[in-house]
Amino acid sequence: MSPPVCAIPGAGPGNGRALARRFAAAGYRVALIARRDETVAASAEGLGAAHGYVCDVTDGAAVEATFKAIAAELGPVETLLYNAGNAVFGSVDEVEAADLEAAWRTNTLGLFHCTRAVLPGMRAAGAGHIVVSGATASRKGGARFAGFAQAKAAQYSLAQSLARQLGPEGIHVAIAIIDGVVATPRTREMMPDRPDTFFLDADAIAESVYQITRQPPSAWTFEFDLRPFGERW
Amino acid sequence: MSPPVCAIPGAGPGNGRALARRFAAAGYRVALIARRDETVAASAEGLGAAHGYVCDVTDGAAVEATFKAIAAELGPVETLLYNAGNAVFGSVDEVEAADLEAAWRTNTLGLFHCTRAVLPGMRAAGAGHIVVSGATASRKGGARFAGFAQAKAAQYSLAQSLARQLGPEGIHVAIAIIDGVVATPRTREMMPDRPDTFFLDADAIAESVYQITRQPPSAWTFEFDLRPFGERW
Amino acid sequence: MSPPVCAIPGAGPGNGRALARRFAAAGYRVALIARRDETVAASAEGLGAAHGYVCDVTDGAAVEATFKAIAAELGPVETLLYNAGNAVFGSVDEVEAADLEAAWRTNTLGLFHCTRAVLPGMRAAGAGHIVVSGATASRKGGARFAGFAQAKAAQYSLAQSLARQLGPEGIHVAIAIIDGVVATPRTREMMPDRPDTFFLDADAIAESVYQITRQPPSAWTFEFDLRPFGERW
Amino acid sequence: MSPPVCAIPGAGPGNGRALARRFAAAGYRVALIARRDETVAASAEGLGAAHGYVCDVTDGAAVEATFKAIAAELGPVETLLYNAGNAVFGSVDEVEAADLEAAWRTNTLGLFHCTRAVLPGMRAAGAGHIVVSGATASRKGGARFAGFAQAKAAQYSLAQSLARQLGPEGIHVAIAIIDGVVATPRTREMMPDRPDTFFLDADAIAESVYQITRQPPSAWTFEFDLRPFGERW
Q1: Which of A58, A92, A150 to mutate to probe the B interface, most B CBs <10 Å?
Q2: Transmembrane segments in this chain: where (chains A, B, C, D) (predicted)?
Q3: What distance in Å separates residue C26's CA from the closest CA in chain D?
């Protein structure tokens, strides 16, 4: 029996890389998907089970081709971890229409494209997992998140529509509401005065996502929040 | 003193026309905005205070030009009633990427364009009202609303970001969560077996929207739902 | 035809008194209900249409007797404005079990008692309004609101159960989510450094509540928030 | 080093028994708490690590005495799994004030009492877990759940207040929103026509609760829903 396949659009440092590591450790073949070759290469480094795919998730034809290649090379995708994002911060004065659109395309349209690409295989298997990396902004439109929050809200809504439709087909859709900043070299450098406890640890997130994909169909989670213990909320 | 100006993108039959009637009755000059000339003409008919503007709200340059014309011809916009919508129903199997995008552009991007167009005038006046026509789908992604709900969720989120930012500047942003089907000749014909009590009355919606714009700044509503009394929810 | 009757449990200074004033101005006979005689008397002062009733809303038998007296003396209650509250602030360390219980009894159990008392009359009339004074805490349990928030959450939930059941019977149930501090002599004195714009104006709240009771059954609101324009949320 | 201690108020068949089994399997000493001796005895049967305590969680003094006994006999409580509940179903016409009160006391007041009882020990340890068994009714007041939903809403709110306060102290508070009916001999008998897939499996719930208590402090979940895959929501 061949190992199960996990595809990770948005396979950058932070969550993407940590998810890859966790699922590889569990015996998955991992397809890392990102727009740029360097990103994919960096995330795949040292992970024998990881295979890189360069693809812009907002491009429907490219997504279709990429997932065909994944199926051919690794096998049908059992688990889709949708981690692609695009963070444009700022108020209505600070963001432009193009920022709103780019955020929506990456967070929401890309999820639609990837879901359509994996659905035939999951339906054929009568099983599958789709876990989306959401954010606090998925549920709350802050004044300074006019561009980002609308995209995460649309993504959350689409994930909910998918969960409601696909659950009865045996396909488990869930969303992690990540409430805080994930520690990466870049975020640590941007916020040098913050203590370790301010940041979410990407490996801890990946572990929770992995556990969600272990749930038997008789008790599935759609939504779970994740925040560092010291976070005020 | 010249009468206040109210702009209504999405000025079709149903809510658009009813809002125009209500604000005209209150002494407003009303700018009706829709994509097609016939829509604008039909909604303006018999409303002396109404002026029609043909404009695609998803086109930023067209929106800017239209609102410049409104300001020149009618005066600065005091109240923006964002009623433009685009309903593509269906599950993830039934809608296409282009449907999701069209829904998002009309519901969310158009709101952004129109808000940017009216903000300078509202800020100069230190006051203004923006009321958005939302839907149940703004807060809930149903299985058969994969295209529509994500767009309304993004719109809701953007409205919330706007409300949080603009409230302290004296600009009131609100959203009506319309939970049900508005009676129009078209919806009545599509659902001939439904009793009168199944439908929302557009004039009743318009009255509630009007009252929201009467609230003094010491007690502003952001969100209010509207449903027919017999609706199961 | 005799004037309609409005009953206001929690008829103290602030919202209670302002609601009485607003509905009296609209031609209602107003039954002011509070635990203490002085409260009732102070709120009734100068309001010819107001009649005071001393009653502890947490006592089911007393509520039944009071509403019988109101029906006999003023007529059947058409509108119930449930404004009784009990604010015990503090964290889990600062509040005691008795505080949680008192808060729940006043906010939630009292609403149940009063609803049961007015329902027969409203059902006989095939119409009626019940509007509850909620709070931000109705939807959010803050760290320092361990006693208060649980009671407002229970009250909100009960109001929602009532709205869902009674709507189809023609009885309109709504809740105002009051997000901020209402200006009263006492709150102004407690927070002397806050500007006028920090506070909600009770008359503005009362006006919005009154407008909600004007909605025709084809477009009823269940929930609406109210906050001063400068409030950060 | 002595094994960690887990206390389970509401240790009946279904979730209570399954939680006990799961934590016992992980090496915990388990304190089973229920009102009746038979309940405790039945749940403890065959679980060597389980110790029964008869206690009414709505009685503050009894709760204090029980947790003193647990600390003395088993050691300080590291994990509190609050599973006590009281389901009175029915509309506002079908439930009585006493039903609302009993539901609130068991779901909410009992959680307060038990939290107060375990807090000193958890604070001394600088760590601890409190997981509450919530329900769909925690977030939604249905027409036929007037008694139950208000109690679960209050419980949810209290859990949220606790999570916000205790998180920064290193104590993890979470709530499982259980959306459906848990399979027990009694529920299966009550709904004989329902297929297996209609029911939640208590062991699956217990596994998810257990995993939540494994999360490192850098990524804690407060809220997660659990429903059988075929559930319409």
Answers
A1: A150
A2: none
A3: 30
Q: What distance in Å separates residue D44's CA from the closest CA in chain C? A: 30
The answer to whether the CB atoms of C158 and D150 lie below 8 A apart is yes
**If you measure CA to CA, which chain C residue comes closest to B162?**
C233
pLDDT digits (tens, 9 = 90+) for B54-100: 999 999 999 999 999 999 999 999 999 999 998 789 999 999 999 99
Tokens read off for A201: 């640890």
Chain C adjacent subunits, 3+ CB pairs under 8 A:
B, D
Nearest to B219 by CA among C200, A160, D88: C200
Chain centre distance of CA D4: 18
Tens of pLDDT, residue by residue over B142-163, are 999 999 999 999 999 999 999 9
Superfamily for C5-226?
NAD(P)-binding Rossmann-like Domain (3.40.50.720)
Torsion from C-alpha of C183, C188, C192, C193, nearest 10 degrees: 0
ipTM score of complex: 0.97
Which residues of D make CB contacts under 8 Å with C?
60, 91-93, 97, 100-101, 104, 108-109, 112-113, 115-116, 119, 137, 140-146, 149-162, 164-166
